[in-house]
Structure formats: structure tokens, C-alpha cells
Amino acid sequence: MGPIWHSYYSECSALLFVVDASNPTQVSSSCIQLLSVLSAAPLASVPVLVLFNKIDLPCYMSLVEMKSLFRMQDIVSCATQPITMLETSARDGTGLAEVLQWLRTTLKDPC
């Protein structure tokens, strides 16, 4: 899907970037995709939430491991947009309340 993402950038108010935290073989390609998204001019000031998903699986990599593998400290320091990171499980709902709160705050929803 990555090749068509750019067609949605102009209408983007917030960006959720989901990474499979249980699949170490995809870390490098996920990182490249994230860097590509962050460097897109239409997204230069769009807030980004990076979700490390599938933390319910026994083989998941922790937030500390994922931040290290992605070199998130370097990415955050060079990015023009604010970046937040959370661990989630779409299957059991872990972290989803925090995602919704981030969206409400980011999109200035009064709820």
C-alpha cells in the first residue's frame, strides 16, 4: 500500500503509523517507510503516532527494543513533526484508550 499513500497526504490531519512489533524481519522496511512518510512535504507539520502493535504475542519486541532498532531518538530529533510512540494490541485492546486520547488531543476534540 505504501506506493499509494502519497495520494492521501494533502487531507491528513494526523498520522498513525502501525508497526508489527512481533516481526523483526520487517523492522528495516518499516523504518524506511516511516522515514519516507516523515520526509513528505505535505506531512511536514502533521502530528505522528507510531504504534508498535501485537504486544499480546509472546515474541513481540518491547518498546525499548523497537525504539533502539528504529533509532527513534535520531528520527524524533530530525523530524519536523511531533512524534509520539505507543505499544498496542489491536487484538486485546491494550493501548487503544491512549490512542483515542492522543487523537482527541491532537485533533482538538472537546470530548
UniProtKB/TrEMBL annotation:
The keyword GTP-binding applies. This is ADP-ribosylation factor-like protein 16. Keywords: GTP-binding, Nucleotide-binding. It comes from Catharus ustulatus (Russet-backed thrush). SUPFAM superfamilies: P-loop containing nucleoside triphosphate hydrolases. One of its GO terms (molecular function) is GTP binding. It comes from the Eukaryota. GTP binds at residues 53-56. PANTHER family: ADP-RIBOSYLATION FACTOR-LIKE PROTEIN 16. InterPro entries: P-loop_NTPase (IPR027417), Small_GTPase_ARF/SAR (IPR006689).
